[in-house]
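Exercise 7. Predict the joint structure of the components listed below.
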Amino acid sequence: MKRNPYRTQKIAFAILFTSTVLIVLPVGFIIFFIIQNGWKAISWEFLTAMPKMGMRAGGIFPAILGTLYLVFGTMIFSIPLGILSAIYLTEYAKDNGLTRLVKLAIINLAGVPSVVYGLFGLGVFVLFLKFGASILAGSLTLSIMVLPIIITTSKEALDSVPQSFREVSLSLGATKWQTIRYSVLPHALPGILTGVILGISRAAGETAPILFTVAAFYLPKLPNSIFDQVMALPYHLYVISTQVPNVKIETRYGTALVLLMLVLTMNLVAIIVRSRFRKMKKW
Amino acid sequence: MVEKAKINIADLNVWFDLTHALKNIHVEIPNKEILSIIGPSNSGKSSFLRCLNRMNELSPKFRKHGIIAIDGVDIYGAIDVGRLRKKVGMVFALPMPLPISIFENVVYGARCHGIKDKLKLEEIVERSLKAAYLWDEVKDRLNSPGMKLSGGQQQRLCIARTLAVDPDIILYDEPCSGLDPISTAKIEEAMYKFKEFYTQILVTNNTKQAARVGDRTAFFLMGELIEIDRTEKIFTSPRDKRTNDYISGRFG
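Solution:
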């Protein structure tokens, strides 16, 4: 049978379009579903009060605050470490067997199940370093989980800066660090930022790594130091959905909605910052 | 040659991995000469040029043997490569403005070498852009992006940027390969004027340009320096048959 290229084009378009719709629909549906079930629970009290009556009433303030602390702690450890090592790997490390092995290992680390990180955190930070179940241990565990994401995306962003920028800068007598600082980093920043946000928003939503390292089942008070335990939104959601009987549906979906909004807000901030950088730098 | 040469190259051999890119090159380049280098692609002319400011070192497969001395100092010896590149400027084949403003492009090198004074930087910008015949075209929009300029303007911007770090020697790696004849003429005019101040080495695929610009011309083939002589001599009565074949367009 003779092929009609115009018909093939139509079929190809239909397949591509359908695939996209199939991916977008569930996301939209999930968000819609959570908002529909959860918006009634959202109130000033829900966001700012302590939980009451075994988490069946009151608010989720300690969990929100706990998650914010953990996100902040993760940022402190993982952003500088991730970006700096990405710079070292792309700009300085010689391309030899060892470097390639390290890069491969980092990529593979991104695929390790998060519960494994949780166990690692329990073994190293909680028990061996004696941090106990604490914000510090939880943040470090989350940092280790998101580092591969930050490093890999930062590396890609750095690699995508044209080689000619480096050559021009070096040919003018700039040092290697000046070249990186003024000719490479500014142009890689939007990409790096994307990686950072992807990593951090994943840290905000993960349950398994904080399960053994920081998350408290029920702790209606605020932490005093980084060595205290906190409640965290993802774990709290798990607890009220499966461990505590007779929690109202709205409360559960309300908690999910707050977590979702937190992550979406972070992503939104990243998108705005990134687009501002993009406007400044163009090539 | 009576006067002391600016650049002395002796027994230069270059390899990239197993490829022998330059073979036993001996050249002396006197101060303030324009040396044109011609030859078919892969003849080693760009590799030769990039030896002089050590840009070849960016390739991990680069190996070299032999001596290159500028002002009597071995440039592969104990000297700071940044200082060397400040002294030996380079203009690339494609205009490569950085994605920053015209002003920032010109002062990029100066800033890296520690000049912070605003007035001084402004003076550098004006002087360099005037020297590169670009000042009149861009003086009212120094803050617009360098990449918005036309191809010829971009290349003159790159020349200005090279001049701004106050070099002794300027290397041109096929600087006009993507430019129209008028832009090319402007750049050649600038080179003429620079004769007073700089030693210049021009790698070009355009034999006519080599003939117009060069005091002397060198012909490279397969990594060997076949012939180097006064430009008139090369283009009227070359000693080597291969040179004659190349300039008369029989190959390459």
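Discussion. The interface with chain A takes residues 53, 55, 58, 60, 82-87, 89-90, 92, 94, 96, 98-100, 108-109, 111-113, 145, 147, 158, 161-162, 165 of chain B (CB under 8 Å).
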